[in-house]
Amino acid sequence: MTQGLLDTLIEKTVVPSFSSIGAAVRKRLFDWRALEEYDLSDQLVVITGATSGIGEAAAEVYASLGAHLVIVARSEDKAQALIERLGKNTGNERIDAVIADLGQLDSVREACDELHARYDRIDTLAHNAGALFNQRQRTNDGTDLSVEIMVAAPFLMTGLCLPLLSAGTGAGRVLTMSSGGMYTAALSVDGLEMSDEHYQGAQQYALAKRAQVTLNRSWAERVSPEKCVFHALHPGWVDTPGIQEALPGFSKILGPLGLLRSARDGADTLVWLSADDEALGTTGQFWHDRGIRAEHMSARTRQADTRPLRQKLWDWCESHTGFVLDV
Ligand SMILES: NC(=O)c1ccc[n+]([C@@H]2O[C@H](COP(=O)([O-])OP(=O)(O)OC[C@H]3O[C@@H](n4cnc5c(N)ncnc54)[C@H](OP(=O)(O)O)[C@@H]3O)[C@@H](O)[C@H]2O)c1
């Protein structure tokens, strides 16, 4: 059986693919180059959501590979504690913090102003922050909070940072941490924010994660890959504070069976997409375990993913955030 066929079979069967089994098998199957072999000392990496879980594990690897790391975090205390911890663990002294609450677009705008003021380029912008709210939460202006954090804020940040992302010698890289949960959701713009009456945290999360993957492709269609490439990915099922809090039952069942990935394994493809040249040879793709994956697993979601609807999502983002791409 060829490697590719075995990989595809694993992907179609979800549990082996998303669980720790997928990472372990693919690592051996494709003889993955160890992340430790990459040198990121000439890269400036900006990452959100690095104060916990997958983002924290990614930050540690970025720091150990020598990257100049900028963590965008909402808590000054957590950010400083992380910088100290990473400095101690990796010896990297080039780790900065920019404070921003991604649930407030004004805060995102201020963070981007700060990035422009402090740095002359960004090599990787990693949109990793995310949350699943079992109880509906809203921003000050009434937007669903998960949509603001995972759809609107990354859109605005990407748009405002685009000049920095294309200012280096090579193309910048924008990476978006989506979720395999998005396979269950069809693209929807009118229904992007569920009504209070039908609200279900996991479904609202999946809708936002689907929108992230759609926008990843939309950015790639609008921005030349010579300036910047765009990649979305899903990490599989990863043992993190986020999943323990949002889906305790899931964690409780899969954890003891050894099926959850470590945060380090959950971070692998994110860091790899920042480090490996393979990520520069393509744009607009959806990845898992260092391989390009299908964006749909059912005819229902595939049929809903039309060009007019993708444009409608883009228009919603521009009008909601006030950022309009000048092409
Ligand atoms: N774990 C999984 O199995 C899994 C599966 C699929 C996808 N993912 C995705 O992977 C990413 C990381 O997840 P995780 O499991 O590592 O989650 P986590 O442990 O809960 O970490 C989430 C991170 O996002 C930050 N964040 C949340 N709301 C924020 C806001 N308003 N402003 C700024 N930062 C904010 C958190 O900051 P604080 O520390 O301040 O709270 C934290 O650093 C998310 O996008 C998640 O959807 C995870």
How many domain regions? 1
Q: Which class of secondary structure composition applies to the elements?
A: alpha/beta
Q: Tell me the overall shape.
A: globular
Q: How is the CATH topology named?
A: Rossmann fold
Q: Helicity level, as a percent range?
A: 40-55%
Give the second-level CATH assignment, the architecture. Answer: 3-Layer(aba) Sandwich
Radius of gyration: 18 Å
What is the residue-mean pLDDT, rounded to a whole number? 95
Molecules bound to protein: NADP nicotinamide-adenine-dinucleotide phosphate
Which band does the percent of strand residues land in?
A: 5-15%
**Highest CATH level, the class:** Alpha Beta
Main sheet: strands, sense, barrel? 8 strands, mixed
Number of strands: 8
Terminal CA distance reads 46 Å
Instruction: Strand order, main sheet: write it out.
Output: 3-2-1-4-5-6-7-8
Fold topology:
Blueprint: H1 3-12, H2 15-18, H3 20-29, E1 44-48, H4 53-64, E2 68-73, H5 76-90, E3 95-99, H6 105-118, E4 124-127, H7 145-165, E5 172-177, H8 201-222, E6 228-233, H9 241-246, H10 248-254, H11 263-275, E7 285-288, E8 291-292, H12 299-304, H13 307-321
Parallel strand pairs: 1-2, 1-4, 2-3, 4-5, 5-6, 6-7
Antiparallel strand pairs: 7-8
Helix pairs in contact: 4-5, 4-11, 6-7, 7-8, 7-13, 8-13
The chain binds NADP nicotinamide-adenine-dinucleotide phosphate (NAP).
